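Morning. Coffee machine broken again, so started the prediction first thing and wrote up yesterday's gels while waiting. Chain of 699 residues, entered below exactly as on the submission form.
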Amino acid sequence: MSSKIQKRRLATFFALSITVVVIWKLHMSLQEIDGDEGDLAVKRKQFFSIVKNRTGLKVEKAEFRLDGTPFQIIGGSLHYFRFPEEYWYDRLYALKACGLNTVTTYIPWNAHEPSPGTFDFSGMLDLPKFLEIAQQIGLHVILRVGPYICAEWEWGGLPSWLLRQDGIRVRSSDPTYMAHVKSYFNALLPKIVPYQYIYGGPVIAVQVENEFATYSSDTRHVIALRDMIKESGIKEFMFVCDDRHGTEKNLNYDGMLKTINFQNQAADAFQLLTKTQPDNPLFVSEYWTGWFNTWGGENNNKGTPWTKSLTAEKFESNTAEALDIGKNVNFYVFAGGTNFGFMNGGFKNKARIIYVQSTEHIPSDGNNDFYVTSIKDVISPDTTSYDYDALISEEGKLTKKYHITRRLLQSRKPHETFPNIPTERQLASYASVVPDAYLSIFELMNGFKSWMIESQFPISFENFPAVSDRLAGQSYGYAVYECDLNVQDGLNFDMKQSVHDRALLFANREYQGTLLSTTKEHTLKIQPSPSVTVSFLVENQGRVNWVSTGDDYIFKDQRKGIVGNITVNGKIVSGWRTWPFDFSDQFLSKLSGYIKDNTLKWKKYKLSDHIKGPALLKSELTITESEPKDTFMQLEDFEKGFVVVNGRNVGRYWNSAGPQRRLFVPGVWLHRGRNEILIFEELRVGSVVSFHKTSGISS
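Came back before lunch.
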């Protein structure tokens, strides 16, 4: 046998061996995944290749082209993290049936990286699964990766632990901030890479940052983010968005397409956009279908607060104008969903509330008797409901706007067959229940004494040290700050606006009033005593998610809790005890353990006892059907707090403030038999928890 033949055979053998090894490794890697779609996305990126004839979304002759063919973006915003994952298919199918071809979604950094280096892409945060469902239905996807997203979401999606580092400048090219962004992108973007359109996936475009021009003019930051995204393997089309005011600045984004956000006067908005970038396609990346609500504000079911003109007829004419002039439209939002847990954002408003003197000033009819000492800029927290008066309601109902939009799109696509309109989910009105047991906040403090933090001066939530089995820092929820004071002739508190955002004040565990971040001074007239225990139950009501130019100082420092020293009778108070109460999964698990080992014991609740808050109450809802339905929960005669159902925080309620009166409870979070309901009430404990088929807010 010649040496040449031997060499060929040897080469063939080695080639076959390498092929077998590669196939074996691929097989083993898929076996390791065991059905986890999030991990599957990471594994796939090692084996993808560009699909033949797919060149992606491009700009040519003032229009979008997808693979060289003219393409009109008809999109709708639907945020996966605001819906149980079991509802993604329903909402996405409804979007497709309405005539839309693209779904857009934000990606919330703070949800995916709740603590530094710890990432979560499971359950409601399983982004790869969401992308796969969208592709299964036949939708393209536009991802708004941030890292800042606004979205009426807690701190615009930024994680609160960034605030542990003094001097950090978020939304800028500050090296410390960008290092954290890079670490996050290194975890996030590889999951997106295999789902790009050019690789056979649904993702056709990526938005960088969000409405940056209203915050800053230093676009070097946005350009650096774009480059970072590219380096991570994202090859699809990239763009930026701004509102009218931001667009007027005509900032230089180094060639990235500019898009615009608005609700009314499409012709004027598109003319402004054309002026800044001639010969480019027109795209309204946020065509506002309604507006969000804030606690204590009006129900914004007539559009933006500055116009209040969005009737059904006006919505129809606005939509027709946007489609005919701009062609490329993204309905924001198509379906809003819910700010479950403590994840609502906040909006800067003029203060109407400074503090409430006592519970007697909170009438059951919801007409508050607030004492206003001055008008200041404060953050009004967004409601739990993110219904937005959108095309699909919070609970999944197809609204009048849905049918208007479908009709308008059908008339413009006469040769296209739309999917059938989906059947809507049915809701249930279960029998009312009453609380059967409770624990006061002070009993919880005693039970969780291993979590107590001792310090000379107050510490903000973000800087809480690690104690016992509890990690450092706190992002959301409440904390109790306590100190002992010698009282000679009353207590004159100089708060220095250090309470963020809202605090209930107690002296020897008796309620004395409610303080806000605008409160500068507060006086307690109590009997002289060598020792009075003063307690502050402080709530983070939601970090601000958006500010305009000139208010960046508000956005940069969103620390919560007591964030500075407090002076009493001219002396700085020292010697503090603090209990972190974030009501997280860890807290609830520990609470359950304390109940089992009798460290804490539920007290029997009797209506005649006239229990006052703050208190954690327990109740049970018994369901006989095997597949429970969605429902709305109303806390009759309660004042303010939040609710946990079967371990799921369904959000905050604030009955005296409104406009939201009921909390949406997904049926998939309920089960046949007994369902545990935990209610944390701050001030006034009510008597009944009722369940309804409707939200209680008129549309």
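The chain has a mean pLDDT of 89. Going to sketch it on the whiteboard this afternoon.
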